[in-house]
Design a protein that fits this description.
heterodimer; A: 300 residues; alpha/beta; six-stranded mixed beta sheet; 10 helices; 10 strands; 33% helix; disordered N terminus; B: 273 residues; mainly alpha
């Protein structure tokens, strides 16, 4: 029988102390700018992840023929942050995440993940990333246990059975681990997919609409679990969503995308204050419908 | 945090093993799939076995040639099973919309290709060995009597079938699931030129060089020499191996090129049923 050793169950009160967060990353946030010291001049292979940014994107663009999916995107995500990628359908969220993962080759621009150039050396860091998306699936005819075992081996987990047991307890999936993945409900599938995305205890977790098509109870469960995971592990999370409540609840920082560009960036509270709205949904509508006259990025 | 993980290498047998395990799980989970693997080779062997017996009663050549048609059909099945073993395993990932998950992991595309070759060999053995064993009591013919040359024929046909399978998989990756019927069809274009049931000299003069550009033609010529004359034609073997090196490189190249194209077009996340 599996015994939980890794994380508190999400149903328990959320109480992860702040000192469990990655201290190095937090210090970087409040103080010095990472990458300005002598280490900037050291070869990358000696200090590959010292920039303080989990993701650093410069002038990233992706065109499919005449269609511009992502247009001159530049942003950084600090280590240990949960950053929301907010935008409507076709805003470029999934395209951006795909490029960060290396599943999609950009038309132009540069992209560093955990200090590594993803366009040239993505295999150096892929074992430290993971992701979950409704646009991909796990093989339906394999059981959840078999699926997770295969991915544990792909990610080089040293004790796959033990890790699987810990995740089964954490995510409460033990009851259906031996059922075919295709026979599970949406909520159960989401939990198994989440387990897959946490198998390697990723330093950077990319989530594309993690609660899409879930009932409110399961969605809430998933959000609480993710928050706990991030707090415990100090991982960086990039979360693409058009669920405003989710972004408001989980994210330290929000990137708002529209037509392939970042049109605004701030903390949820900052966005609400600047747009003078009560919730992010209204902010989103302001941006989507170009009906805003409020301050953007501090300018009138 | 990263203590429980092992860093990636340029080539990892563990990742190849993980993918073979994935296809093994799929096979193990369905008895009809396993039965189906052996069903078609067995049916082919039965038909050609009875045909051999009939022809032996009416032809001195067939009487002397023994089970040459049975050997031919079994070896053709090695090539065919190897080909669709690669293609079907590849298509499984597309049908299950799993490509995005796979290639966000440290798995390299060439490791995936190697795992496809490995599972294809396993599927071929599961399919062809029962039919070969059944031929012994039914027709008093054992293909295993060929000895070591059989290993050479089997390996060459396995590799050639897999090379074609890789190229076809690349084509499906390029064109999408609308082209999936190619997985079954393409290998049949090779069959008439391979001289499975007749010598290459039967073909028109102008077609014979084309036939000899295929490793399978050299293998089946070699098989006939071994079965009828009891000799192993080393030159045919060397030609088959050399051509296989070229075809495998071309198949792998086509596959990797299609994979890179899929990354450029964003198909790894989109492709699926």
């Amino acid at each position: 029988m599996c015994t939980s050793i890794a994380m508190p169950h999400p149903s328990e009160a959320y109480s992860a102390p702040s000192d469990l967060r990655r201290t190095g990353a937090k210090k970087l946030k409040g103080g010095r700018r990472a990458g300005w010291g002598w280490r900037s001049f050291a070869p990358r292979f000696i200090f590959p992840v010292m920039s303080g940014f989990a993701i650093s994107v410069q002038n990233l663009a992706k065109k499919f023929g005449d269609i511009v999916a992502v247009d001159d995107l530049s942003f950084d995500v600090r280590e240990g942050d949960i950053v929301g990628l907010l935008g409507g359908n076709g805003a470029g969220k999934t395209t951006t995440i795909s490029m960060i993962l290396g599943l999609l080759i950009p038309t132009s621009g540069s992209l560093e993940v955990l200090g590594t150039d993803m366009l040239r050396h993505r295999y150096r860091v892929l074992s430290r990333l993971n992701f979950s998306s409704p646009y991909v699936d796990l093989p339906k005819r394999l059981t959840s246990r078999e699926n997770l075992m295969v991915y544990a081996k792909l990610y080089g987990i040293r004790n796959p059975a033990g890790r699987l047991c810990a995740l089964a307890d954490d995510l409460d999936i033990g009851g259906f681990l031996d059922r075919p993945f295709g026979a599970l409900s949406s909520g159960q599938k989401t939990r198994v997919s989440l387990a897959k995305s946490l198998l390697n205890e990723p330093d950077l977790l990319l989530l594309d609409e993690p609660t899409a098509s879930l009932d409110p109870d399961t969605a809430d469960w998933v959000r609480t679990y993710l928050k706990n995971f991030q707090q415990e592990r100090g991982a960086t999370v990039l979360l693409a969503s058009h669920n405003m409540a989710e972004v408001e609840r989980l994210c330290d920082d929000v990137l708002v995308m529209k037509q392939g560009k970042i049109v605004d960036r701030d903390s949820p509270a900052g966005l609400l204050a600047r747009y003078g709205q009560a919730n992010l949904e209204e902010v989103f509508l302001d941006i989507a419908r170009d009906r805003t006259t409020v301050q953007r990025n501090g300018a009138a | 945090m990263s203590g429980s993980r092992r860093n990636g290498y340029l080539f990892s047998g563990r990742r190849v093993g993980a993918m073979v395990l994935r296809y093994f799980y799929l096979l193990r989970g369905s008895v009809p799939r396993i039965v189906e693997l052996a069903y078609w080779p067995t049916m082919q062997m039965l038909i050609w076995g009875f045909m051999s017996q009939f022809l032996a009663q009416h032809s001195e050549w067939f009487l002397q040639a023994g089970g040459i048609l049975i050997a031919a059909v079994l070896l053709w099945d090695v090539m065919f099973r190897s080909n669709i073993g690669v293609s079907i395993s590849f298509l499984e990932e597309m049908w299950s919309r799993n490509l995005g998950q796979l290639f966000a992991s440290p798995l390299r595309p060439y490791e995936w290709a190697v795992s496809l070759l490995a599972i294809s060999a396993i599927r071929t053995l599961i399919g062809v060995v029962p039919a070969a064993l059944l031929a012994i009591p039914l027709y008093h013919y054992s293909i295993f009597d060929m000895g070591l040359p059989l290993v050479a024929f089997f390996t060459n046909l396995l590799v050639f079938g897999a090379a074609v399978g890789l190229a076809v998989s690349g084509l499906v990756l390029r064109c999408g699931l609308g082209a999936e019927s190619l997985a079954w069809a393409v290998i049949f274009a090779v069959a008439p030129l391979s001289g499975i049931y007749y010598p290459i000299s039967t073909l028109p003069d102008w077609l014979q060089p084309v036939a000899y550009s295929l490793p399978s033609a050299h293998v089946f010529e070699g098989m006939r020499a071994a079965a009828i004359d009891g000799v192993f034609l080393t030159d045919r073997f060397v030609w088959a191996v050399s051509l296989n090196v070229v075809y495998l490189a071309l198949g792998m190249g086509a596959f990797l090129l299609a994979f890179r194209g899929a990354r450029q077009r964003g198909q790894l996340l989109q492709m699926g049923e």
